[in-house]
Every structure is written in structure tokens, then in C-alpha cells.
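Reopening closed ticket. The problem is back. First fold of the pair:
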Amino acid sequence: MLTDLEKDAIRHHYQTLAGALPGFKPRAAQRQMIAAIAKTLSQSLERAEGEDLPERAGESILVVEGPTGVGKSVAYLIAGGVMAKSRGRKLVVSSATVA
């Protein structure tokens, strides 16, 4: 489960990015992706740390799909960065564009 500090940090980084980038348009879809990514990472990390969570098939897997420009990269970088720092983990990001 995400802590209140993690949720606040995610909101802070999203708002900071929105204020710093000219033309940045906050989108509901971005916020939904950020929430889903953070939740999935949180559950996966808790399971890896040995917390007693029930196993549910696919619960630690998330597929995010959307057209170019919808904010997928922003979503996984903000959520992943906050979760990695908060939990003392490293984050590796690999991305590809299929044309």
C-alpha cells in the first residue's frame, strides 16, 4: 500500500512538472496511469520484501498502452522514481517506440 508520504511526493512532482513545462497539459489519463503504476510497484515491492500478501495472478504486472503524447513516460517516471527512492530501490527504465 502506498504511504501518504509517497502519495504526497507523487502529487508534488506532478505539480512541479506541470508548472515548469510550458504547454504542459495535465490529463486525467496521466493521473490514472501514475496511480496504477505506483499501486502495482508498491504491491510488487511489498511482496518482494516478504510482507504477507495473498498471491493473485498478474497483480504485479501492469500493461500501459496509449497513443504518442498521452503521458506514459511522465507517468512511469514520476511513479517509479518516487517509489524507488521511497523504498530504497533502484529504477531501470527501458523504452522503445514502435513505428
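Second fold of the pair, where the issue appears:
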Amino acid sequence: MSENLQPFLQAQGRQLTAVLSNDTGEGEEILLAFGADALIFRCNEDSDAITISFEPIPELDDADDLTTDPAWSRFIGKELFTGWLMQNQQGYADGALLSFDGVVPEVGLNVVAAAFEVLEIRQRS
């Protein structure tokens, strides 16, 4: 298994408690909080590549709380089921998918110009 995917395993089965967005000055980061720890997606402003870590939530002075945003609020209180890291044709990992209710992806992150776009994924009936 790729080392880049290890953070998904560390967060798997944990209950999502909050979602935060933080501008580091070097690119945006999205923090999915699972109690005192977070699955952190960071984007590289030069390559738009994503790095993922699972670590204690850092001190954040100016983070935006996205917990009530419709794209994320439906997952609060749910356990992370699985995650995927997407790689483009140039070899950069610039997207991620997450699922909370089974194997079908439900929300995605894509980096565009050093910022994350949140993609709501809906299953067709």
C-alpha cells in the first residue's frame, strides 16, 4: 500500500466531528476533525498536488468552520468508511474521494489554483 494512503487507514472508522478550512499562505488545507485528531489535506501552491496526513489538530487562528456547510454537514457524526487519492495524467495527486456510508464515494476534493473545490457526489436513483 502506498504511504500516501496510510492517513485514510488511520481515520477509518472514526466519527467526523468538524470540518475546517485554513489558508497557510502556501496553499489551502482542509481538516476533517475526528475528535482531537484530523485528516488533513494540504495543497502545494506550485504543483496543485495534495498531501494527506493524520495528526493532532494544530492550533489554527483564522480557520473557517465548514461544519455546517451542506457539502459536509450530512457527514458529521458519521464514521469514515474509506478514502481514495486521485492521480492525474501528469502524475500529480490532485484530488481525493471520501465515503462515509459504504464503498460509493460521496464527497470529493479537487485542487484548482492552490485551493480546494469540494465536489458533492450523488448516486443516481
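Update: turned out to be a display glitch only; the data is intact. Residues 47 and 90 are 11 Å apart (CA to CA). The radius of gyration is 14 Å. Please close again.
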